[in-house]
Specification:
CATH architecture of the largest domain: 2-Layer Sandwich
Structural class: alpha+beta
Number of strands: 10
Largest sheet: 10 strands, mixed
Distance between the termini: 29 Å
Number of domains: 2
Strand content: 25-35%
CATH class of the largest domain: Alpha Beta
Number of helices: 5
Helix content: 10-25%
CATH topology of the largest domain: Alpha-Beta Plaits
Mean pLDDT: 94
Low-confidence stretches: none
Oligomer: single chain
């Protein structure tokens, strides 16, 4: 029986988990749940390598991971078995055999995160764990102007949640797109013809793509851009914030539940 290097794509609702990374003080992490389930399933110790860590409460629709396993099963059967035994808020959407040298984190070329804002005056009920309710008026053009100053290669120390970071904080953010979107929820029809039907919720999506992101970096950039959108900061401040290399100069960190790891490219 030969060892296989299996690459999986998975999605998860991170609401009840302590983040992606396995931790010694809790088994309630995505990586921990995967490793425990796989090790029991295949009766061997299995280590799962993720493309990157997501914070507690952050979601994913395109997280990528790999693990090595001795099994006669092909990727289709492995996917079926994993989805049978994983919790209902974690699902594997793809599984394939990859080259023995492939590593989900080390081989990743870019990552895309999306932060969703629900901007209507009605608090969202359905899907509320994936969006941040933000009913105040936001100046999106000011936010786009500020976002443009954050793109490119910079030292993002001011946007790093780890104040004791010893490694380089230089990253390249290739794009920050800010789009107005609409989501719909089907409501039951009432006795009156013009009551009920689809309910539309306006949203703003902030989509960040780069070669890598520091701890809390996307959430801090989002919080800073929100302050610009509210008129609390000027877009031009972004340059000074970057140059300061001081976390205290950037804005408040946006809550975790609005953020989703969207995709990873290799």
């Amino acid at each position: 029986m030969s060892s296989k290097n299996i690459c999986i794509t998975l999605q998860y609702d991170g609401s009840r988990y302590d983040g992606w990374q396995r931790q010694g003080n809790t088994d309630n992490t995505i990586q921990g749940r995967l490793e425990t389930m796989l090790s029991k399933l295949f009766e061997q110790e299995i280590e799962v390598n993720g493309s990157g860590r997501t914070d507690a409460g952050v979601h994913a629709v395109g997280q990528v991971a790999n693990f090595r396993v001795d099994t006669p099963y092909g990727p289709g059967k492995i996917l079926e078995l994993m989805n049978t035994y994983l919790p209902k808020d974690i699902a594997v959407t793809d599984a394939r055999i990859v080259d023995a040298r492939f590593h989900a984190r080390l081989n990743a070329k870019s990552k895309t995160y999306r932060y969703r804002l629900s901007t209507g005056y009605v608090r969202p009920v359905f899907g509320r764990q994936q969006v941040l309710w933000c009913p105040e008026d936001l100046d999106l053009e000011r936010m786009r102007e500020a976002a443009a100053l954050l793109t490119g290669e910079h030292d993002f120390t001011s946007f790093c949640g780890n104040k004791h970071m010893k490694k380089s904080c230089v990253r390249t953010v290739t794009s920050i797109d800010i789009e107005e979107m609409t989501t719909s929820v089907v409501a039951a029809k009432g006795d009156t013809p013009d009551v009920g039907g689809d309910i539309e919720y306006p949203e703003v999506w902030l989509t960040f793509t780069g070669n890598g992101f520091l701890q809390n970096m996307v959430r801090i950039m989002t919080g800073t851009l929100l302050e610009v959108g509210r008129g609390e900061r000027e877009p031009s401040e972004m340059k000074a914030i970057l140059e300061a290399k001081d976390r205290e100069r950037a804005g408040a960190m946006a809550p975790a539940h609005g953020l989703t790891l969207w995709k990873v490219e290799y």
